[in-house]
């Protein structure tokens, strides 16, 4: 059965949230017995003592009007900006779309309420003393003026509305790093649109002088579109352009200094190239060196370009890993100045490169093992993941064990130049000095730890 209210939910809530309600604690107590939904039902009223009934009948309305004066309108009827669900804090209506806010000046309490609820209390005014009716009337006339002015402007300056709209949306959707001069033009225009154009639209009449100013803004907007579009084209098509992928990479990985330098140049330059490690870019840049490498008898393995890239040198089948970033830094002149006479310093390149892929390690090891066999070192065992190679020395009946990758890379120049045979002494000395030496039994034990068995020697 529906219960009739003596004091409605809206009234009761507004009243108990006002400081004035503290003057009649008994009434406040009755109203907030259900804290979430303060109100007074007719039935409850009937059961009250006579003096309380009399008070409510004769005094409450006046008291309530006094309580009103504690409140002012902060804003009225604004469309919700996010997807949060908001319920009216006076009547409890679910998920209201247009929000009004009133605040109590005495205790600072604020209530978000629906447009129907706020119009139930037409005596609340805003901080300028305007009633709800006045606020709404003024808003309507501003909207009307704006519409009228837009119509006038569109006739005088064709497409102006579209242009301004496009301009406003452009930067919301922009994911590119703008070159700083373009950014500056954007900011100036944006400020003129906000401070001039938007304000002129609210005027009763826009003077000729102001229309001139809007013509000027429109021309600059059109010019800006051209500059922006050309820049984006450059970003996407030029190898040094800050394309979308690059911009994403920079926002995730770049520091402020890099960002600042890139923005002021509007592209990747000699100053910034070494700091860019975006994979697509590295691939494209290293590929650019293809011809230069080839003219120096270095063959680039395109499939392997990343932070390192592999090359074979002088048709040798062994692949060397070169650090992409130090290579770019060293030879960037070729990219930026088109200097095709650059000679690649092979010794330097090899010194900084490593042999790391399994095939190349095996081939290199073969070369060395074959050469030292005649000097009493018999290659016995190697394992790349264990990073270990052992040579058996018959005379001493001992195993000489060294770290495989370090061993190979120590002699990479001789391997490359097919010059192992002429440098045997140095290789043997390395084995003598760097080896761990095992007896047959100990070496067997050592390998058993890795579940590896070796046969009899
Ligand atoms: Zn409501």
Q: List cofactors, ions and other ligands.
A: zinc ion
Rg for CA atoms: 41 Å
> Helical stretch count?
20
Q: What are the low-pLDDT stretches, counting only 5+ consecutive residues below 50? A: none
How are the strands ordered across the major sheet? 5-4-3-6
Could you estimate the helical fraction of the residues in percent? 40-55%
The percentage of residues in β strands lies in 5-15%
Major pleated sheet: 4 strands, mixed
By DSSP, the count of extended strands is: 13
Shape: elongated
Structure commentary:
It is a single chain. Strand 11 (388-393) and strand 12 (398-403) form a beta hairpin. The protein contains 20 helices and 13 strands. Helix 7 (160-173) packs across helix 9 (208-237) and helix 12 (279-288) crosses helix 14 (324-337). Helices cover 52% and strands 14% of the residues. The N and C termini lie far apart (102 Å). Strands 5-4-3-6 form a four-stranded mixed beta sheet. Strands 10-11-12-13 form a four-stranded antiparallel beta sheet. The protein has five domains: 5-131, no CATH class; 138-237, no CATH class; 244-272, no CATH class; 274-352, no CATH class; 358-448, no CATH class. It is α+β, with helices and mostly antiparallel strands. The site of zinc ion (ZN) has 8 residues, from helix 5.
């Amino acid at each position: 059965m529906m219960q009739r209210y003596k004091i409605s939910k809206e009234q009761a809530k507004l009243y108990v949230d006002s400081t004035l309600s503290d003057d009649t604690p008994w009434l406040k107590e009755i109203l907030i017995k259900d804290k979430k939904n303060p109100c007074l039902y007719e039935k409850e009223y009937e059961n009250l003592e006579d003096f309380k009934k009399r008070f409510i009948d004769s005094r409450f309305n006046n008291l309530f009007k006094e309580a009103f004066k504690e409140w002012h309108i902060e804003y009225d009827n604004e469309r919700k900006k996010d997807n949060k669900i908001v319920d009216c804090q006076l009547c409890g209506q679910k998920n209201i779309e247009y929000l009004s806010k009133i605040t109590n000046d005495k205790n600072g309490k604020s209530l978000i309420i629906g447009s129907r609820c706020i119009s139930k209390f037409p005596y609340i005014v805003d901080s300028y003393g305007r009633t709800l009716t006045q606020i709404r009337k003024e808003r309507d006339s501003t909207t009307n003026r704006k519409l009228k002015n837009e119509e006038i402007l569109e006739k005088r300056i064709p497409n102006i509305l579209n242009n301004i709209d496009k301009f406003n949306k452009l930067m919301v959707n922009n994911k590119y790093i703008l070159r700083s001069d373009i950014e500056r033009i954007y900011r100036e225009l944006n400020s003129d649109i906000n401070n001039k154009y938007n304000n002129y639209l609210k005027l009763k009449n826009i003077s000729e002088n102001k229309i001139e100013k809007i013509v000027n803004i429109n021309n600059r907007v059109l010019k800006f579109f051209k500059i922006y579009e050309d820049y984006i084209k450059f970003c996407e098509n030029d190898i040094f352009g800050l394309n979308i992928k690059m911009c994403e990479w920079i926002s995730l990985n770049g520091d402020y200094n890099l960002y600042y330098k890139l923005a002021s140049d509007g592209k990747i330059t000699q100053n910034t190239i070494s700091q860019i490690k975006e994979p697509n870019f590295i691939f494209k840049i290293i590929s650019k060196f293809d011809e230069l490498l080839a003219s120096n008898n270095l063959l680039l393995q395109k499939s392997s370009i990343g932070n390192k890239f592999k090359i074979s040198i002088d048709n040798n089948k062994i692949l060397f890993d070169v650090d992409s970033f130090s290579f770019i830094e060293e030879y960037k002149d070729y990219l930026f100045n088109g200097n095709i006479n650059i000679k690649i310093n092979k010794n330097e390149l090899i010194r900084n490169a490593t042999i790391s892929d399994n095939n190349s390690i095996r081939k290199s090891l073969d070369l060395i093992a074959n050469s030292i066999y005649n000097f009493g070192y018999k290659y016995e065992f190697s394992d790349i993941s264990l990073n270990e190679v052992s040579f058996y020395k018959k005379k001493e009946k001992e195993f000489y064990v060294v770290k495989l990758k370090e061993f190979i890379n120590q002699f990479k120049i001789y391997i490359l130049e097919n010059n192992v045979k002429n440098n045997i002494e140095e290789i043997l000395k390395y084995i003598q000095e760097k080896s761990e030496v095992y007896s047959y039994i100990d070496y067997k034990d050592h390998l058993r730890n890795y579940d590896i068995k070796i046969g009899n020697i």
